[in-house]
C-alpha cells in the first residue's frame, strides 16, 4: 500500500527511496530470504518510477535490519538523516475501526521526523492518473505548535497540485483556546463564543491568503464541536486524501506523547495521515 506514495514523493522531490525490512531473528537462513525479497521489490519500484517519469537521479536501495522493528527503523532513520518515514498501519476487519499496529504506534510516538501513515490501498484510478493526493486537510488550532505542520502541507500541495483545506474546530463551551489572542472581558458566554468564532475565521483567512498568493487552491472550514470527531467526519464526507497535522507532542524519556486530537485521528478513519512532531515553537 505504501509503495505508490513513496514513488510519488520520490518523483516530485527527487528523493532517494530506502526500502527497509526488519527481522527479529539474525540467522543465516533468514538473511538471504530478506535480500531476495528486497531485490524483487526494488526491481518493481524502479520500473514504476520510470512510469512516474522520475528523474534518473532518483535512487532506490534496500536495507535489512535485525532487532526490534520499531527500534531499528527509528535508529536507521536517525543515523542516516532520513527526511520521512512512510509505513502502513495494520489492516482492519470489515466492520471494525483501523487498528494501529504496535510497530507503527511505536514509530509514530518516537520519530523525530515526519511519519506518513497509510491505512488503505490506493484507488487504482488515482495511480493511473498519477495523482494520489488531490485534497489535503490541514487542521489548525491557532497555536505555534499546530503551525509546525504548515510548511509540510504547503510543500506537498505545491508538488502534487493539490487543494488545501484549512480546518479549524472551535469549542465555545470554554474560553480556553489555542489562539494567541489578547485577554478579553466579555459579559456573556455568547459574546465569548462569537469572539472566538470571529477570531478563528480571521486566523484561517490569513493563511488562506498566503497560500493563494503562492498559486494554491485553498479554502477555509470552521466547525463547532469535538476537534477529532469533526476532523474525521469532514475527511470522510469530503474525499480527503491526506491529513497533515502536528502531534502536539511533549518530550519524555525516549518518547513523546500524542495530543489527544492527533491520537484519535491516527486511531480512526482510513485516510492517509502525515504527522509532524511538535516539540517546540518554530523560530
3D architecture notes:
With 283 residues, this protein is an alpha/beta fold. 41% of the residues lie in helices and 18% in strands. The protein contains 10 helices and 9 strands. The chain has helices spanning 3-13, 30-51, 69-79, 102-110, 124-129, 144-147, 150-160, 189-213, 227-237, 260-266; strands spanning 17-23, 60-66, 85-88, 115-118, 135-139, 163-170, 218-224, 242-246, 272-276. It has a 7-stranded mixed beta sheet, with helices on both faces. The longest helix has 25 residues, at 189-213. It is globular, with a radius of gyration of 20 Å. The two termini are 36 Å apart.
Please state how the strands of the largest beta sheet are arranged side by side: 3-4-9-8-5-6-7
Query: What is the general shape?
Result: globular
Q: Which structural class do you get from the secondary structure elements? A: alpha/beta
Order of helices and strands: HEHEHEHEHEHHEHEHEHE
Unreliable segments of 5+ consecutive residues: 91-98, 250-257
| Quantity of strands, as a count | 9
What is the CA-atom radius of gyration, in angstroms? 20 Å
Average pLDDT metric: 83
Could you estimate the helical fraction of the residues in percent? 40-55%
Alpha-carbon distance between the two ends = 36 Å
Beta fraction:
15-25%
Largest sheet: 7 strands, mixed
Instruction: Please work out how many helical segments DSSP would assign.
Output: 10
Amino acid at each position: 500500500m505504501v509503495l505508490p506514495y513513496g514513488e510519488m514523493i520520490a518523483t516530485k522531490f527527487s528523493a532517494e527511496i530506502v526500502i527497509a525490512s526488519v527481522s527479529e531473528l539474525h540467522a543465516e537462513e533468514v538473511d538471504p530470504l530478506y535480500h531476495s525479497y528486497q531485490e524483487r521489490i526494488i526491481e518493481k519500484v524502479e520500473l514504476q518510477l520510470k512510469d512516474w517519469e522520475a528523474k534518473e537521479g532518483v535512487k532506490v536501495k534496500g536495507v535489512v535490519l535485525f532487532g526490534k522493528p520499531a527500534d531499528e527503523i527509528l535508529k536507521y532513520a536517525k543515523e542516516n538523516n532520513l527526511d520521512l518515514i512512510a509505513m502502513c498501519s495494520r489492516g482492519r476487519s470489515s466492520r471494525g475501526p483501523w487498528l494501529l499496529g504496535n510497530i507503527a504506534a511505536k514509530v509514530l510516538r518516537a520519530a523525530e521526523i515526519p511519519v506518513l501513515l497509510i491505512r488503505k490501498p490506493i484507488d487504482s484510478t488515482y495511480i493511473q492518473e498519477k495523482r494520489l493526493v488531490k485534497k489535503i486537510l490541514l487542521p489548525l488550532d491557532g497555536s505555534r505548535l499546530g503551525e509546525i505542520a504548515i510548511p509540510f502541507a504547503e510543500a506537498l500541495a505545491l508538488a502534487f497540485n493539490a487543494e488545501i483545506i484549512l480546518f479549524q474546530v472551535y469549542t465555545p463551551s470554554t474560553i480556553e483556546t489555542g489562539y494567541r489572542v489578547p485577554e478579553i472581558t466579555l459579559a456573556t458566554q455568547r459574546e465569548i463564543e462569537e469572539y472566538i468564532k470571529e477570531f478563528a475565521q480571521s486566523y484561517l483567512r490569513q493563511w488562506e491568503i498566503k497560500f493563494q498568493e503562492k498559486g494554491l487552491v485553498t479554502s477555509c472550514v470552521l466547525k463547532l464541536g469535538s476537534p477529532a470527531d469533526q476532523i474525521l467526519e469532514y475527511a470522510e464526507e469530503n474525499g480527503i486524501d491526506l491529513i497533515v497535522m502536528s502531534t502536539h507532542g511533549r518530550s519524555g524519556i525516549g518518547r513523546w506523547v500524542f495530543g489527544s486530537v492527533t491520537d484519535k485521528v491516527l486511531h480512526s478513519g482510513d485516510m492517509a495521515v502525515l504527522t509532524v512532531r511538535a516539540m517546540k515553537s518554530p523560530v
